[in-house]
Amino acid sequence: MQEETKNSKVVCGYPISIFFIVVNEFCERFSYYGMRAVLVLYFKYFLQWDDDLATSIYHTFVALCYLTPILGAIVADSWLGKFKTIIYLSIVYAIGQVAMAVSAIHDITDSDRDGTPNNMTFHVVLSMVGLFLIALGTGGIKPCVAAFGGDQFDDHQEKQRRTFFSVFYLCINGGSLLSTIITPILRGQTCGIYSQQKCYALAFGVPAALMVVSLVVFIVGSGMYYKAKPEGNIMLSVCKCIGFAIKNRYRHRSKAYPKRKHWMDWAEEKYDRLLIAQIKMVLKVLFLYIPLPMFWTLFDQKGSRWTLQATTMDGNFGQLVIQPDQMQTFNPILILTLVPIMESVVYPLIKKCGFNFTPLKRMTVGMFLAALAFVCAGVVQLQIDKTLPIFPSTSESQLKLLNMGNNQLEVHLPNNFTVHLPPAQIDDLTSKPEEGNNAIRFVNGLATDLNVSTAAVNFGIIEPLTSSNYSLLKSGSQLCEYTIKFGFGSSYTIFIPSTFTFGPNCQESVTEVEEIKPNSVHMALQIPQYFLITAGEVMFSVTGLEFSYSQAPSNMKAVLQAGWLLTVAVGNFIVLIVAEIAKLPKKWAEFFLFASLLVAVCVIFSIMAYFYTYIDPTEIEAQFSQEKDEEDEDEKDKMRKTEEHVTKRGSVKSNDSDNAFKLSKM
Known about the structure:
Number of domains: 3
CATH topology of the largest domain: Growth Hormone, Chain: A
Shape: elongated
Largest sheet: 5 strands, mixed
Number of helices: 17
Structural class: alpha+beta
CATH architecture of the largest domain: Up-down Bundle
């Protein structure tokens, strides 16, 4: 049986329109997190930026994504309404994703067809425009979609509304999980018209296609939606009230005017006392938000610094090879696991032990866990640094010595420095091969030309007593007259001596020289830091939103949501500021610095939390409503007494006029 409600049919107790909204959210989250998963590697390896610039632009983009929701909420509530805002900004969003996909096509400007774009400015500008449009789109629709879904339910469908929000947030984590698994795999493929390179265009193209699907699905359900008209944005009213209070306080700054209990009381001349009381409650919570950006400063680096750290690690898990940007999948997996465990096991157990684990205490512990995660990241980085080769600095030079003979040589260098050079010993390269590739070259010790090729690379003709250029090969097995197993990020020189002869045992005379060892620190060592940061997120973020909503009036939820998103944006800007000011040459030192800063902020927040007094907004609002009702009753009594007094005066005047008439007759 079907029934009508809010212009939408109901199936199994749910408005049919919400199914379009759920699919829309899943596709949009897949699009956003899929693009974001490979973004920092796109900056580093495609646009050829260094780690610091890649990290800075990445966090600037994330910060913009959390600033624009405020704009989206104002536009939706005050002008266009939620439905039109979602449609228009989704179009902007899709255009941005397509621009990112096009910017990653290297063949567009690869005029010499060597696999490297010749006009990098084109790709940089197009990608920056794309990221700006994406930030505007994803941020603008963020506060609208969930609220628009909630609007589809009638008041008597409270249970169905709660189920919808659970499914809605499940779609967010599901889209995030799948996209961070799939898009790194797509990035690892090779594609191109003239030359085969890492396929960032495909890694961005699939999220772009999902965003288009998201938009189409949402539009298809247009006729079934309940579309509430914009009723004005509470944030504008709050800002105007606060602005008037500040302005009025400044006008009456003279000592001649009596002081008031709270500076917001200076708005009483223009605004309702209930609104002022509600703003006071919100400001009390927003004050606690001041230290919170530091948590997001650390948390969002899992998509930048931690991903870059994973590129110098071994991702071989036996039958499964993990890409560096796929390590981020541990976050949504752990969220889906830890949230029910925390709610049903950990928190009730702590309560049974008699410990009052208040929301603010949970948030403090969450911040401390995030700091511990960065301590773990610093320890892992120390282990990685031990395996990295030492390269010459800008003030040093590198000397390459090659012994083409069969016997060891003793070489005397200035400052009484002696080197014993084994046969076929080579030491070259100025940086470690990136993206887990292996740098391979051949040295020809024969008196004739040698043609060398592998299944992946053709080294071409190598002249006598010369070497080929380095070529990058993926991890795995490459057949070159003999089999060699490559790891991640290594460098080899394969030496073919003058005694080499073709035959069934020719591989015995070929010598391989390992110049740079493959990545030996396993990516599994990152799992503890991902576990700690996710546990911190569950205790900090989930609890923080719950606490904020419990401490604010019902009509001020949007203000707190805007304040919460603002802390995320500020946190990402702090990454830029700290990294730019500190400029630490060692990454482990930077990890420890961020951990120390969060511990310091954690102490400050715990002190603020200790002096915080929990309130019941509903009770306070009820008191104001009761006082207002009493004031209204008093006002009515005054008006009633005034009317009675006027009536009595009228009757007295009437008697006086009658007496005067009688006297005049006499």
